[in-house]
Design goal:
alpha/beta, five-stranded antiparallel beta sheet, 15 strands, globular
Length: 292
């Protein structure tokens, strides 16, 4: 079979349940093997050519359409959440609508490091659609521990996202062994480096992890939210929904973990965290200056 880099394939041993993009081709133990990135999940895998099927356009469109429908449903629920938050804040700022204050709001700034440039592009589009200020940087997972410190000094974010691709490999060890995961140890080290800069959990909020990541190690290292408690795959856009909810929650209010996770595409099997305060700040007055 003729398979090339950037082809979209499925794995026959998994009934082609996930679409993958071929990012590299190597010889492993005498077998031609493809390195794969999930198209919609933050999963990294490799598979011999005999286990791969090049997806035909109709089947690929069907699977992609199902994902886009799920994304739209999740986005609609998220918008309802944000509207509810805005109404609560308006009620509080205007003294239960008895005062006609002109006010403005400053959401938190996000620094998003992503190991996959195409996922980073999708996330940046969603941040823009939601209205979250963000600096996005493509950075391989292995480089994150060395780069995160200088980037915090440079951009002074309120929230950091450390994500990319990950996977648990049973043949490398038990689920409690960090070395059995493709990139979890790099996410853990990057979280520790970030916490050396800002130890307080409510002064710098951190999301870390990807598909099947070692959730407990990431939370122990200092992440507020992480993947993946049940070692399941997470959707590419889920980290954006989590940090956006924190961005639009007032800094005096706590973000309930269940409230954050319930409208994500993955849910509590793939995402979890600890109670964390929001980062939105409200100010006044808001005035538009007329040009002379």
């Amino acid at each position: 079979m003729n398979i090339e880099i950037n082809d979209v394939v499925g794995r026959l041993s998994y009934q082609c349940d996930i679409l993958f993009r071929v990012i590299d081709i190597r010889m492993v133990n005498g077998q031609k093997t493809a390195m794969l990135y999930g198209e919609d999940y933050r999963l990294i895998a490799d598979a011999p050519f005999h286990d791969l099927k090049k997806m035909d356009p109709r089947e690929r469109d069907r699977i992609t359409r199902e994902f886009r429908n799920l994304e739209e449903q999740s986005f609609d629920l998220f918008k309802q959440d944000i509207e509810l938050l805005k109404h609560k804040q308006e009620y509080r700022v205007t003294n239960a609508y008895r005062e006609d204050y002109n006010y403005f709001q400053v959401p938190g700034k996000v620094l998003h490091l992503d190991g996959d440039p195409s996922y980073l592009r999708k996330c940046l589009d969603l941040y823009e659609k939601i209205g979250v200020p963000v600096k996005g940087i493509h950075c391989s997972e292995t480089e994150m521990p060395n780069r995160i410190g200088p980037l915090i000094d440079k951009y002074r974010p309120n929230i950091i996202v450390l994500t990319g691709h990950d996977a648990y490999t049973k043949s490398k060890g038990g689920k409690g062994e960090i070395n059995a995961y493709r990139h979890s140890k790099y996410f853990v080290e990057a979280v520790k480096e970030a916490r050396r800069k800002s130890p307080h959990l409510d002064q710098l909020v951190i999301f870390a992890g990807a598909c099947q990541s070692h959730f407990e190690s990431l939370i122990h290292a200092g992440a507020n939210f992480a993947s993946s408690p049940s070692r399941v795959n997470i959707h590419a856009l889920d980290p954006v929904y989590i940090v956006a909810k924190i961005c639009f929650t007032g800094f005096k209010d706590s973000v309930n973990v269940w409230d954050v996770i319930r409208n994500t595409l993955t849910g509590e099997k793939g995402l979890g965290g600890i109670e964390t305060k929001g980062v939105l700040r409200t100010g006044m007055p808001f005035k538009i200056t007329d040009d002379e």
